[in-house]
Write a structure and sequence with these properties.
The chain is 4% helix and 43% strand. It is mainly beta. The strands form six sheets. A seven-stranded antiparallel sheet has the order 1-20-17-22-15-12-11, with no helix packed on it. Strands 3-8-5-6-25-26 form a six-stranded antiparallel sheet, with no helix packed on it. It has a five-stranded antiparallel sheet with strand order 2-9-4-7-10, with no helix packed on it. The N and C termini lie far apart (52 Å).
């Protein structure tokens, strides 16, 4: 009988992915309460400020100097997809777009020919902690789309399709679909030049939570696709006859339906799959192209143009404490969420 499992590996930082994805990072930080200026109400002593990637007291500053996060930095040739679970993130970019999003929202940014952006984690709560959990995926662009105009889009939490499935024992599996289709649900498309925008490429991004003791089957897809399952929280999974501990990345045979059971706790899973682009990948830092010559051109273009420059007052740009979830697009249109 054909096995549904191709390989199993430990989750690292970042998580290993397969074409058309470049990598995935899972951020989970239990930030402390904040001060009036949205900085952490805690000492930063003992941290390698500017490169703080080691968890200390349950959280990291990353590249932030005063506020945790990623001050302005450039990208070219791919897309970032940011999937939030808990907490809020402030976005600003060289297009003039900005936003505050989180608690189930999804941000999709096509870097294309080049964009500067920042992703900061403001400490908005002053009387309690500021826990933050999210995934960021890098999704590649094919060669004919690498130099498209940049684009910033939002899928608000209420617009993310979701479904609850009950098994024969009454146990529930909850699924959210951020890209692609599942059952009779299709995720909104907010990135017109994305590899994920064309249905024939089969890009699917889903989070799945299986109740303890629950069972769920992921249907087979085209055998040419790449399919990865990331088991990042609680207990064990049983797939076929194999019991798999938590914090594992599992490469699956896409042509085989996968029967999954959660053991010893409710299981949380991220699924990434799709048709590979199948082109050479040249990556250096924040740029992903097809050749080293194109990488060098990306650096030259950035030095020359700064990808439009930085229109915001701070490299660690955060928005007002009074702001809720919102998106300000480059054309001036603004969406404000309740």
């Amino acid at each position: 009988m054909r096995s549904s499992i191709k390989s199993i590996q430990h989750l690292g930082f970042p998580w290993t992915t397969l074409d058309p994805f470049l990598f995935c990072v899972h951020h989970k930080d239990d930030y402390p309460k904040g001060k009036e200026d949205l900085t952490p109400d805690a000492s930063l002593q003992g941290r390698q400020i500017g490169q703080d990637f080691t968890i200390k007291d349950g959280w990291r500053m990353y590249h932030g100097q005063r506020i945790p996060g990623f001050p302005y930095h450039p990208h070219r040739g791919f897309e970032t997809v940011t999937i939030t679970e808990t907490g809020l993130i402030d976005h600003s970019d060289s297009l003039g777009a900005a936003g505050r999003f989180g608690n189930g929202d999804v941000q999709w940014m096509t870097a294309g020919k080049g964009v500067l952006h920042s992703e900061m984690f403001p400490m908005l709560n002053q009387d309690s902690g500021n826990p933050l959990e999210f995934f960021q995926l890098w999704l590649n662009l094919p060669s004919d789309k690498k130099l498209v105009d940049p684009n910033f889009g939002m899928i608000w939490a209420n617009d993310v399709p979701s479904i609850k499935i009950e098994d024969t024992n009454g146990k529930t599996t909850s699924i959210r679909i951020m890209a692609g289709a599942y059952a009779d649900l299709t995720a909104p498309s907010v990135a017109p030049n994305s590899w994920a925008a064309e249905a024939q490429n089969g890009v699917r991004i889903m989070t799945v939570e299986i109740e303890e003791g629950g069972e769920w089957t992921l249907p087979a897809v085209d055998e040419s696709y790449n399919r990865m399952l990331y088991f990042y929280r609680s207990g064990e999974l049983q797939i076929a006859e194999e019991r798999i501990p938590v914090e594992r990345a599992i490469q699956l045979d896409p042509a085989v339906a996968v029967h999954v059971k959660a053991i010893g706790g409710s299981a949380k899973i991220l699924i990434l799959e799709g048709k590979p682009i199948g082109e050479p990948v040249a990556q250096q830092g924040p740029f992903v192209m097809n050749t080293q010559e194109e990488i060098q051109q990306a650096f030259a273009d950035y030095r020359r143009t700064q990808f439009g420059g930085w229109p915001w007052p701070l490299q660690e740009q955060v928005h007002g404490k009074e702001k809720g979830r919102f998106a300000l697009y480059a054309d001036g249109h603004e969406e404000v969420m309740s």
